[in-house]
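Working notes for the structural subgroup meeting. M.R. asked for a predicted model of this chain before we commit to crystallization trials. I am recording the input and output together here so anyone reviewing the notebook later can reproduce the run.

Input as submitted:
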Amino acid sequence: MSTTKKRINISMEHDLEKMLASVAKRDRVPQATKATELLRIALEIEEDQAWAQLAQTRDKKGARFISHKKAWA
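Returned structure, recorded in token form:
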């Protein structure tokens, strides 16, 4: 059976493997599905942190502001 999804191999510590198995069982989903969901959440958090860091570098006294309408026009 072929799939269009990319498959990867992950080596993980025993404690992490047990935790993944536990939350997958709790949510009644395969471990791969739960791992994908958790990776998606982690990457969204990483993206948020990157945007926050960029905003912090731009948030300075005397910074120029433009309207939302003008920014997206």
